[in-house]
Amino acid sequence: MQDAAETIARIRAHPRFRAALEVLAAEHERTVEDTIRLTEIPSPPFQEAARASAYLEMLRAHGLAEVEQDAVGNVMGRRRGSGNGRTVVVAAHLDTVFPEGTDVRVRRQGTKLFAPGIGDDTRSLAVNLAFLRAMDAAGIVTRCDLLFLGDVGEEGLGDLRGVRHFFQEGRHRDRIDAFFTVDSPEVDRIVTGGVGSKRFRVVFRGPGGHSFGAFGLVNPAYAMARASLALAGLAAPGAPKTTHCVSVLGGGTSVNAIPNAVWMEVDLRSESAAELARLEGEFLDGVAAAVAAENAARSTREGAVTVEIAPIGDRPAGATPRDSTMAQLAAAAVAAEGYIPVFESSSTDANIPMSLGIPALRIGSGGRGGRAHSLEEWIDVEKGECLRGMAASLATILAVAGFEA
Predict the structure, then answer these.
(1) Angle of helix 383-401 versus helix 325-336 axis, rounded to 10
(2) pTM for the predicted model, two decimal places
């Protein structure tokens, strides 16, 4: 930690870093305006194209090299370093959780801005542009290239598809030394653990029939109930934190009919890849046992209960060690601004590189925010607090990318 603190102290004391902070301060309102502009471009799940197009042009206007859009819709551009082309990615996601038709106009009350998606993660897109302007104006050079990425599909059923594609098929994937996702305002919360998840839609089918006249036939709803209770009984350790949930249910046609189909969606999560695999296996065994038990309990003369299990989400677990150089530099930068750094686990774009053994963190965009994923989502763009948080994140990025004094 001492070495990390010394590195951050040297960066913070350097005239070019101080000049960059002056640019961030002078352009604070521009960053706010960029946040509003991008927020008011709807970016529902799987419909990020309009915002991606706008952000692509903003990256191009900031003078980056190799500005491009890939096959799944990610947009990116490279700020060249002095080295051999090794790369540190600085990402923010383009999508929000809100469906098409959501009113995304920004409402302002003093220094607070209210709009769906404004903090998660639109402000981060604008802050990354501000970092670019500040570094350029201050003449800052890094050894590694900085690849600024606006990625699609981070939220919900997007299932990290943008960053997944970037690391599995993108042309830059073999040159990535480190990865930052700038996601939500809080800089004191440094995400070093990627919570993995497996999500399934499970459909139980049977012959159906009249609830009175066909009574005694197998009932898919009873099989689903057995499967749900089996999941409820599975071990969920607190360390590594592991959870399970039957989250969405549906099916049936009438109150007086045995359903011919019912379904549930299930979310399984763990900080540990091994625990997640264990949980998945036991859940699938529980579903099979529930179907077998229902077929044994009631008549199958009109047909048996069957089950279809479809994966609808797969986020790999991973971690960047808390004692790693990258994590310690982030903690030192946060502490230098007077915050108390907290390491935690979450599910973010950083899951993908973490699972591949690439150093990765989630860091904050600066400022305050709340009510994420609600229609009353807000951020506070009070200048002092925003700049304080942005300074911590910029110092972290420069330290990892190799700030050249």
Answers:
(1) 150
(2) 0.94
The CA distance from 260 to 371, in Å, is: 40
Residue 391 and residue 187: Cα distance in Å, rounded?
A: 10
Note the pLDDT tens digit of each residue in 179-198.
999 999 999 999 999 999 99
Say whether pLDDT at 277 is over 90: yes
Residues 400/88, Cβ–Cβ less than 8 Å: yes
For 248, phi then psi, to 5°, come to: -135, 135
**Beta carbons of 309 and 287 less than 8 angstroms apart:** yes
Measure the CA–CA gap between 262 and 252, rounded to whole angstroms: 6
- pLDDT tens-digit map of 390-405: 999 999 999 999 999 7
C-alpha 152/C-alpha 46 separation (Å) is: 8
Question: Please, which residues bridge with residue 179 across strands?
Answer: 89, 360
Nearest CA to 199 among 256, 168, 243? 243
User: For residue 298, what are the CA distances in angstroms to 30, 218, 220, 225, 268?
Assistant: 68, 5, 11, 15, 30
| Other residues' Cβ atoms within 10 Å of the Cβ of residue 215 | 12
- Which helix (H) or strand (E) covers residue 247, if one does? strand 242-251
Stretch 198-225: mean pLDDT:
98
Q: How far is CA 343 from the centre of its chain?
A: 16
* Distance, CA of 345 to CA of 317 (rounded, Å): 10
Q: Round to whole Å and give the CA distance between 101 and 180.
A: 31
DSSP 241: B
Per-residue DSSP letters for 211-223?
TTTTBTB--HHHH
Query: Is the CB of residue 167 less than 8 Å from the CB of residue 353?
Result: yes
Q: How many residues are present in the chain?
A: 405
For residue 23, give both structure tokens. 């640019």
SS3 299: strand
